[in-house]
Design brief:
Number of domains of chain B: 1
Strand order of the largest sheet of chain A: 1-2
Shape of chain A: globular
Distance between the termini of chain B: 13 Å
Radius of gyration of chain B: 18 Å
Oligomer: heterodimer
Number of helices of chain B: 10
Distance between the termini of chain A: 27 Å
Largest sheet of chain A: 2 strands, antiparallel
Largest sheet of chain B: none
Strand content of chain B: under 5%
Structural class of chain A: mainly alpha
Number of helices of chain A: 10
Radius of gyration of chain A: 19 Å
Largest interface: A-B, 55 and 53 residues
Shape of chain B: globular
Order of helices and strands of chain B: HHHHHHHHHH
Helix content of chain A: 55-70%
Number of strands of chain B: 0
Chain lengths: 244, 195
């Protein structure tokens, strides 16, 4: 019960900046890099993962006393997998454009370290309401990061901003066409793989620059934040500490 | 083109053009986390090849079974449970029967459950409509490519010691990501190798 001293508001805002899952804890990097090619796909991915995170946090915190400690990781994965399947089917039925844009990364929400990590570190130790708030905060932190990275990559890479038909809600909306308005050609590389890594590096460096001394910055990949921390052997943890 | 030729092409393209961490953004967490030195890169790489291949050998027939009874939509749940159980089983087996191997490779096994490249390769085998042999080739090639990228990254990172003059804000994770960006730029050079 490490989090008991915190108010509801602190739990909610914790994930936004102070413990932002992607930029500070450095987990859930694969979907961040892969789906931040534009604001639309980034927002779609963020909201899909947020929905799964809130639901799984609620269910896991409600039944954590029933789950035997030894089989909790498979139990958590089953709960998360169930919600991912529901989101997958809903998107396929109602928002097929987003379903095809996210592609392989939609079922891969199930192995998103943010969700299993929050289940293990927060939901299995706290009350249902706190876990729901934590899910909302962490999910929004993830979505916010995706939108920021999506904006940078879309503006630099395609010369547009907020383009797309917004999951079918705004047909005919072309977004803000910076390329034709300002005459600046887009740098295609920014929407490709190297651009993803580079923009992520720059955003993280900017966060380090502005929050230096204020928040905990991870200089190496230690064990905190890793979803599999509890199953990891002690030798390995000692090694990790030695390396850090 | 013969079957064997196709299998060879799938394997080579999985190592180069479609390299998992550097071209498809799969398995980034272990790619960044375990690439600190060459020894751990080797252990992780071999463990990933092993689990990926075995997971494909098991999940491909299971998907046929799910499809035949009309519950193909349960793919995500079933696959991740199979992978989690498989990893647990391999760990227990190795601990009991192969303690030497367990000591050098076993510590990486629990981390593989949440490696998205393993689930990714199982799902993409089905999505691409590969047959059994091609699926296994894709899984083995994917694991090989992961090891390849991990080894290059570990080699580069062992040079990024404290004396290197890196801007303060870029120290730690950002410089590793920048290195990955340059590496993936190099891997883009492979594109167009197979049409």
């Amino acid at each position: 019960m490490a989090q008991t001293g915190k108010s509801k508001f602190q739990i909610l805002t914790n994930g936004l900046i102070k413990e932002n899952p992607v930029l500070v804890l450095v987990i859930g990097t694969c979907p961040t890099l892969a789906t931040s090619t534009s604001v639309e796909t980034g927002l779609g991915m963020g909201l899909a993962a947020t929905a799964v995170l809130i639901c799984s946090n609620i269910v896991i915190s409600a039944q954590h006393k029933l789950i035997p400690d030894k089989v909790r990781i498979p139990c958590f994965i089953t709960v998360i997998g169930g919600f991912v399947t529901i989101v997958q089917m809903l998107l396929q039925a109602f928002v097929p454009s987003l379903y095809s844009a996210l592609g392989l990364y939609l079922p891969l929400i199930v192995v998103n370290c943010i969700i299993l990590g929050r289940a293990e570190m927060f939901a299995s130790k706290n009350s249902v309401v706190d876990s729901a708030l934590d899910g909302i905060g962490m999910g929004l932190g993830f979505t916010l990061t995706l939108c920021i990275m999506g904006s940078i990559r879309e503006i630099l890479g395609s010369g547009t901003w907020l383009a797309g038909d917004w999951f079918g809600l705004a047909p005919g909306f072309k977004g803000i066409q910076l390329q034709s308005a300002l005459g600046i050609p887009g740098m295609g590389i920014m929407t490709m793989v190297p651009g993803g890594f580079f923009v992520f590096a720059c955003v993280m460096a900017a966060v380090h620059f502005f929050t230096r001394d204020k928040s905990k910055i991870r200089n190496s990949f230690g064990c905190d934040g890793c979803a599999m921390e509890s199953v990891c052997s002690d030798d390995d943890k000692a090694r990790e500490k030695g390396a850090a | 083109m013969g079957t064997l030729g196709k299998i060879v092409i799938i394997m080579i393209s999985m190592v180069t053009v479609d390299n998992y961490p550097l071209s498809q953004f799969l398995g980034i967490c272990p790619f960044l986390g375990v690439s600190t030195d060459l020894d751990s890169a080797k252990g992780m790489g071999i463990a990933v090849i092993f689990v990926m291949t075995l997971a494909t050998i098991v999940t491909w027939p299971i998907q046929q079974l799910l499809d035949s009874i009309g519950i193909g939509y349960l793919q995500t749940v079933v696959f991740i449970l199979i992978i989690a159980a498989l990893v647990q089983f391999i760990e227990m087996f190795m601990k009991k029967n192969l303690p030497a191997l367990y000591k050098s490779m076993g510590i990486y096994l629990p981390l593989i459950t949440t490696n998205c490249a393993v689930l990714g390769v199982c799902i993409s085998n089905i999505d691409e409509g590969y047959n059994y042999a091609e699926s296994i080739a894709q899984a083995f090639g994917g694991g090989l490519g992961f090891w390849f990228a991990l080894t290059i990254m570990a080699g580069v990172r062992s040079r990024l010691v404290d004396q290197t003059r890196i801007p303060k804000s870029f120290r730690g994770v950002p410089i590793v990501l920048t290195t990955a960006a340059i590496l993936s730029l190099a891997f883009m050079g492979f594109s167009g190798m197979f049409s």
